[in-house]
Amino acid sequence: MTVLREGNMRAKTFAPLAATVAAIVLVTGCSSTREGQANAESESGGSATVAAQGAAPGEMDPGTYRTTPQAGFGTVTSVNSGRYVEGQRMAEFVVLPTELDPLLTGAVGMSTYVIKSGTALSVLLTGKSPDIAEREGMLTGFSTSRSYEDKKADKSIVHAVFRFPDAESAQRAAVDMSADDALPSEYLPGGVPTSIDILPDTLTTTRESSDGTFSSNSFTPHGQYIIYTWASAPIAEKDWTAQITAKALEQQGPMIDKFPATAADKFAELPMDIDNVLVLTIPEDDGNRTTSSDAVYGPRGSAHFSTNPTLTLDFMDKSDTTLMARSGSNVYRSESDDGAATLFDLFKGDIVDSEGFTPSANPPGVPNAACFTKDSPQGTYNYCIVHQGRYLGEISALDDETKVHQMTTAQYKILESAK
User: Model-level pTM?
Assistant: First the structure.
């Protein structure tokens, strides 16, 4: 339900990072290039779109959006692309902030994303840490972030897992990155190396700022991984940062140990599309693609991009929904037609009851669709869902109801033709 990313709100199940809609760009990262996909136009007969000739009143109008599934994506064609596909896979094995503190539901811009290299760590870390990670051959990673919705509480977390070639490189990187973090920078005063009694292997730097905020940066080597946790709280509640870091490590270690990591020399052979769900999405505009999009996530992976991760997991479980593909639209795949219908009803109820949307006109001629709007300081959010067979599509846009209606119509036609 509601993906927290621009132009695609919901994916509260599967994601990202949904409720509170796309007001905040929660996902970032380097622009991704779609590799491994066959030539869609040649295989599907031209551009696979319908020309906008002005549909008659009451008739379906997909505008210029494609109305048939995309060509198969196949495997990636380079190690570079394989890195972000591996990072997308890793998202399923990264602890959700709401699992550490149920009040950590607020969006934190720019910090939930697939990290495809050491240099891409510059979104999270200042100083020489990105260079250190690159020096030690960091392979990939995934970062997730949240804050308290109550700004008076002012508590936040960024939690991530970085993968290196081996335990030795991860250990060296953790030591050097933590030491670099303690140095003053253009933006931050110097930190204080601080030990956490219950976490003897964790390298932590703490800071107190003039605005009354206490923060901690922790690097913990764990086999070929570094578990990274940044936590911030009012100085009067600084113990929360140690407690949340300890809880993160307690859960993250066993979880990442279950990750079926791909050998680095096999990255260029990874499939982009699990069970042919991504081909059913409307393609993302080139300018909006990131390392976290053009991806297929499981329930936990998608919950990172949702405004309500706990509810996302609950809805996907209740509807037996196991996959969500994320591109220009989101497509959820349930194990049965009834499951998709259940997910549709759950989304409809939550978008009104919890998210404050109101029902709006549906796209003409499209069955099994429901649309909603919500006014905000950023403009009017338009949101539609449509289900067909075992699939549910999700579309949103700001201040453009026509676009959402046309995309929803196109999405229905795509799902209708799915095998």
Answer: 0.85
